[in-house]
Design a protein that fits this description.
Layout lengths: L4 H10 L9 H8 L19 H12 L5 H4 L23 E3 L3 E8 L3 E8 L4 E5 L4 H10 L3 E6 L5 H4 L2 H8 L4 E5 L9 E3 L4 E3 L6 E6 L8 E6 L2 H4 L6 E6 L2 E2 L2 E2 L7 H12 L5 E5 L4 H11 L4 H15 L7 E2 H7 L8 H6 L5 H14 L4
Parallel strand pairs: 4-5, 5-6, 6-7, 11-14
Antiparallel strand pairs: 1-2, 2-3, 3-4, 8-9, 9-10, 10-11, 12-13, 14-15
Helix pairs in contact: 2-5, 9-14, 10-11
């Protein structure tokens, strides 16, 4: 198709010249299979059963869950008024936000997520942290989507390690957006805190939120639904939080301290509660297990623990969450809570954050 003309031609050059031009797309899809052996679904860490089996298991488990029956469907084009029902999704589905864009999570490496941020009208997309570019490219091609940009949250290899290969495949004019505060491979657009950027060949703009701590230059990407889309029930936008905010947790303080992470959490709290949160790793089970070890009488934490077990049991993702939901149960977003401080024998918000991080670093999930 004309829409894929550029991308297919770039892939064709990358493939052996001996391949038949009549089967370029089919050859490209085969070429995008990584050298290591993968499950048929090419999701390296998602335990997949048949869709029928997943649906049957979900039906059985939903009976005992407070809100799982509303949250399990994942090709979400309409939403209930209750944001707590917007959590989680199945593999191979995307979530439509408003009417202008959708987000497709792609499991990569051992427990990472990459994402396609898709402009629905133009069928173009930005690849977020595409550390396994061949997997991400294949997902894009199977959906008839052309990648025009990379959005990179920080310099760690499991987020930025695929930039060079993706540029090599798609061409040097590929837009690579990164932080202005640290070196990002192949970056040709460098965003500072609060700056907005229109993604190449799309109608979508993202705003950078500078959140130093996990790395000194870490940024998040926030995108709002269109004014028309905001009139509809559902999320008002999406946040790609990298390794700063996780479902029920936060990133390690590799290049920052507790004060830095408090500032990062406060910046995220300023976003609308209805903002969907797409984080960089599937860490939710370990995070909620940790929360239950320190805050087991928190009813929201109890609910999230049960819901997480349900999601993973039926082969679904625990992302996305919402900003509003994380504020209810995520202790790293509740460091000013006096009851939590008392449980941790902490006398300040900074001490609470530092104590939480130290305890989580040592915690072993079952």
């Amino acid at each position: 198709t004309k829409m894929l003309c550029f991308q297919v031609s770039q892939v064709s050059r990358w493939l052996s010249s001996a391949q038949s031009r009549a089967s370029t797309v089919a050859v490209a899809r085969n070429a995008f299979t990584p050298a290591c052996t993968r499950p048929q679904s090419h999701h390296s860490w998602v335990q997949r059963s048949s869709r029928k089996a997943r649906r049957e298991k979900a039906t059985q488990l939903q009976c005992s869950m407070s809100f799982s029956s509303s949250s399990l469907p994942s090709a979400v084009t309409s939403f209930s008024p209750n944001p707590q029902t917007w959590l989680g999704m199945e593999p191979d589905k995307d979530i439509v936000v408003g009417s202008s864009f959708s987000v497709l999570p792609i499991p990569i490496l051992s427990d990472n997520y990459s994402f396609l941020l898709i402009d629905i009208d133009s069928k173009t997309a930005a690849a977020v942290d595409p550390a396994e570019p061949r997997v991400v490219l294949r997902e894009a091609m199977e959906r008839g989507v052309r990648i025009t940009s990379i959005l990179c949250t920080h310099h760690h290899w499991d987020h930025a390690g695929g930039n060079e290969e993706l540029v090599r495949i798609l061409g040097d004019d590929l837009e690579v957006v990164g932080s202005a505060y640290e070196e990002i491979p192949c970056a040709n657009v460098h965003l500072k805190d609060g700056e907005s950027h229109k993604i190449r060949e799309t109608n979508l703009s993202v705003r950078a939120l500078y959140t130093p701590c996990h790395t000194r230059g870490h940024i998040l990407y926030y995108i709002e639904a269109s004014p028309e889309g905001k009139k509809r029930p559902g999320p008002t936008g999406a946040l790609f939080s990298g390794d700063t905010l996780f479902m029920g947790g936060c990133g390690r303080f590799f290049e920052g301290d507790a004060k830095d992470m408090i500032a990062a959490m406060n910046k995220i709290k300023q976003l609308p509660d209805e903002t969907l949160v797409f984080c960089g790793h599937e860490y939710t089970k370990g995070n909620v297990d940790f929360i239950m070890s320190i805050d087991s009488d928190n009813s929201d934490a109890v609910r999230m623990s049960a819901w997480t077990a349900n999601q993973l049991a039926v082969g679904s993702f625990t992302i996305p969450s919402t900003v509003g939901n994380e504020k209810l149960y995520n202790p790293f977003m509740r460091t000013a809570d006096k009851i939590l401080q008392q449980k941790l024998s902490a006398s300040s918000e900074e001490e609470t954050m530092a104590t939480l991080r130290e305890m989580k670093n040592e915690f072993k999930s079952t």
